[in-house]
Structures are given as C-alpha cells and as structure tokens.
Design a protein that fits this description.
By secondary structure, the protein is of the alpha+beta class. It is built from two helices and two strands, in the order E-E-H-H. Helices cover about 65% and strands about 10% of the residues. The termini are far apart.
C-alpha cells in the first residue's frame, strides 16, 4: 500500500500497518460529507468571506 502525503509518498509494506491505515480511512470516509454536501459547505463559507 502507498499513501501520498503533502511532502512525500509513503510505502507501507507491513500487513498489520496496512490494515490499520485501511481501518482509519474507512472511519474517515464514513463521517465525511458527500460531494453535494461538501460543495454546499464550501459555497456557504465563500459567501461568509
């Protein structure tokens, strides 16, 4: 598994570490806004500026 970060690409070869990152990603994906809600949020913040 590899992850692109702001400053680099990180390769994760350990099965355990890869599973931890996968679980973390799944949790973040479950609580994140969908595309439409994200666009609405960005639009509302833009109007406040």
């Amino acid at each position: 598994m590899y992850m692109d970060t702001v400053g680099e690409t990180v390769w994760v070869e350990s099965v355990e570490e890869s599973a931890q990152h996968s679980t973390r990603f799944d949790r973040i994906a479950k609580v994140s806004l969908g595309a439409g809600d994200s666009a609405t949020l960005v639009d509302s913040i833009g109007k406040e500026m």
